[in-house]
Amino acid sequence: MSPRPSQETRDGAKQRVTELKKVRDQAHEDAEKAKAAADEQMWKDIAAELDAETLLQADVCEATGFSRDHVLRRTKKYRTNQN
Q1: Are 60 and 50 in contact (CB under 8 A)?
Q2: How many angstroms separate the CA atoms of 46 and 80, rounded?
Q3: What distances in angstroms separate CA 7 from CA 3, 20, 21, 80, one per listed residue?
Q4: What DSSP assignment string belongs to the chain?
Q5: I need a surface site. Which of 21, 25, 50, 83 has the fewest CB within 10 A?
Q6: In the predicted structure, residue 2 carries a pLDDT above the cut 90
Q7: Angle at Cα 42 formed by Cα 40 and Cα 45, nearest 5°?
Q8: What separation in angstroms does the CA of 14 have from each of 4, 18, 22, 41, 74?
Q9: How far is Cα 52 from Cα 35, in angstroms, rounded to an integer?
Q10: Residue 83's pLDDT is what?
Q11: Phi/psi class of residue 76: alpha, beta or left (left: φ > 0; alpha: ψ in -120 to 50)?
Q12: pLDDT for the residue 82
């Protein structure tokens, strides 16, 4: 059996692991923010296409795989030309 590390060694290692966890958590948070921003931009752009009448809601559903209800809910706040 190998000898146990000293308390000082263990404390140093625990501190390094704590820092690693902080870096990981920040990376996850940044990724979630980037994901949310990309989603918002996509729905704004889709709403603009719908407002410009360059495609139908059914076309958006076909291209994205989302239901009509989902497309309606996600684009509603960005639409300026609602019928």
Answers
A1: yes
A2: 12
A3: 12, 20, 21, 64
A4: -PPPPPHHHHHHHHHHHHHHHHHHHHHHHHHHHHHHHHHHHHHHHHHHHHHTTSS-HHHHHHHH---HHHHHHHHGGG-SS--
A5: 83
A6: no
A7: 110
A8: 15, 6, 12, 41, 44
A9: 26
A10: 55
A11: alpha
A12: 65
Tokens of 43: 């729905």
- Degrees, nearest 5: CA angle 72-76-79: 120
Residue 12 pLDDT greater than 70, yes or no:
yes
Q: Scanning the structure block, which residue is given the tokens 């990376």?
A: 27
Give residue 64's identity as a one-letter amino acid code: T
Indicate whether 70 pLDDT > 70.
yes
pTM, to two decimals: 0.77
Cα gap 80→45, rounded to integer Å: 12
Distance CA 30, CA 79 (A): 28
